[in-house]
Amino acid sequence: MEIKQLRYFAAIAELASFTKAAEQLGVAQPAVSMAIKKLESDLGLTLIHRADRNISLTDEGSKLLTHAKKIIQSTDDALLEMQELKGFERGEVRVGIPSMLGSYYFPPILMAFRNRFPDISLKVIEGGTWQLQKMLENGELDLGVIVAESLPETLDTQRLLQQEMKVVVATDHPFSEKESVTPAEFFKEELVMFKEGYFHRRIIDKLAEEAGVKANIGFETNLIPLIKSITEQGFGISTMLSMVISDDDQLITRSFNPSIWLDLTIAWRKDSYLSKANQAFLEFVCEQGRDV
């Protein structure tokens, strides 16, 4: 069993296609087919169902895939570590950031990092906390910014900053006369919310569950300017982190009663090798967080 065979096998499993796997791997399809046939022959097992061009894994194939992913990740980590023994000159950082932080907190940090480390390329992926956590666990990301709510044992984390989640309303909304807003008062209003999977939405869903009510969500969007615009025009109210609202916005923020504070952390896989490029990014970002 060779690492190349496992890479081919994992690509086929992911894409459910020999043709697409070959394209992704940059090799001829016959080479992929031959490698899988040899792998099956060496193991004495059928790993892939091939019926009417519908590709799926057998039970044995599914079990092998679990091991194959770990072997591939360990091999890549070993190769990267050996390459870095030659010297820290270049690298790539794949980091996942929730859209609210990606739009309002991270841009100056990313630019400052690139200025200090011009030979390190940054690949920034935007997504919800749950999606980013899964991408981290699957090795699709090196680092991810997530809310320290319920973290799996497979991840290590370091605290970045703490932010308050505020109720956001139009300037003429009755809540503007209040010092704070209770969950009961909040859930009587029509809401403008992020879609499911984003930390902002998960906190509100959890709050509604604890209050024993169903949230009246009139608008769902991940576009922050649209959420602001709808709220400014009085078509609903929303919640956002303090950092997102500026003096130029025609919006009022009020704390929840009791207040809601979120610990934002940067996470990485516990058992993986963190490259020097990723270590440099982690240290840089945490340094900026301490200054907030």
Fold and architecture overview:
With 292 residues, this protein is of the alpha/beta class. It has three domains: 3-85, Orthogonal Bundle (Arc Repressor Mutant, subunit A); 92-161 and 264-289, Periplasmic binding protein-like II (D-Maltodextrin-Binding Protein, domain 2, 3-Layer(aba) Sandwich), CATH 3.40.190.10; 162-261, Periplasmic binding protein-like II (D-Maltodextrin-Binding Protein, domain 2). 44% of the residues lie in helices and 26% in strands. The protein is built from eleven helices and eleven strands. The strands form three sheets. Strands 3, 4, 5, 6, 7, 10 and 11 form a seven-stranded mixed beta sheet that branches. A two-stranded antiparallel ribbon has the order 1-2. α9 links the parallel β8 and β9 (217-220). α1 (3-15) crosses α4 (59-84). It starts with a helix and ends with a helix. The model has no long low-confidence stretch (mean pLDDT 86).
